[in-house]
Structures are given as C-alpha cells and as structure tokens.
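Notes to self after the call with IL:
- keep both proteins in one doc
- input above output, always
- annotate only the second one for now

Protein 1:
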Amino acid sequence: MADERPPDLWTIDDVAAYLGILPSSARGALSRMGVRAHSFRAHPTSHRAQALYDPEQVKAANAARPGRGHRSDLDKETE
C-alpha cells in the first residue's frame, strides 16, 4: 500500500528522525513542547489512528526549547 499522507505533514517517525530521538520519546517531547497533531489518518498496515504533525510547528517548537543545562530559575527577575 502506498503512503497516502500529504507530503507536507510528518508522522511520529519523521518527527523523531528530525529531533534525533526514538519515536516513543518523540511523543513525550512533542507534548512537553506543546505541539498537537495537525490531523489523523489510518495507519497503512494496522489501520489504527496515526497522528500527522505540521513540520513548521515542530521546527519552531524545537528552536524555542531552552537547551541542555538551561537555568530557567534565573530567567525571572526577583523583586
């Protein structure tokens, strides 16, 4: 069966490859970054719902991440 997803949307495997992590970890990372699925489609073999993500939203959310070792407690000025 051919891949019927729109070419401008990513599966969780595409997201994981972009982020350099496992697909099982990508779901949690997207959740923490606040990225929600753009739409759903039936998986080609299992026919279960498969989330599709907007690549621009994934890229923007990843770019906005603070990075390893970031001290978020120092971001806010205390009065």
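Protein 2 (the one to annotate):
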Amino acid sequence: MFIKYECFRDNQEAVLKEVFNFLEVNSNNYVFEYQTIHKRDKHAKMRIEDKNFLLDKFKHEIHEVEEILNWDCSDWLV
C-alpha cells in the first residue's frame, strides 16, 4: 500500500480507514482524532533557478511514480 502525503494530510480519516481496510482491521475499534502533521514555519522562497534544476532532475522519476502507482503527481511539477 502506498499513500500520497498530500492525500493523507488533506483526508486523514478517509485514508486511515483505507489503511484499516487494507490491514483487515475493524476501524470501528478506533476513535479518529484529526492531527496536524509536520506543521512548521514557511521556508524561504526557493530561487526559480534552483526549482527548475530540481524539476528537471526529478521529472522522469515523478512520471515513473505516476505510471507505477496510477497517481496524478502534477502538483509535484508546479
């Protein structure tokens, strides 16, 4: 099972239920409590040259992840 971070961050309860289902665990035995994950101050804005370098460097791998997992990772390429 693979979980896209953004999906978990935005839909914790639904994703957690999917995990329980995958593990064949009764989700009714647990009480969901929303939690903020990795909350931190904003980083300095990345220079456009650095961002373009990284996008160019990892574009192929991101497309492979999309193909293998049938995910839309277009938000990773913005």
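Annotation: The chain is about 50% helix and 0% strand. The CA atoms of residues 5 and 37 lie 10 Å apart.
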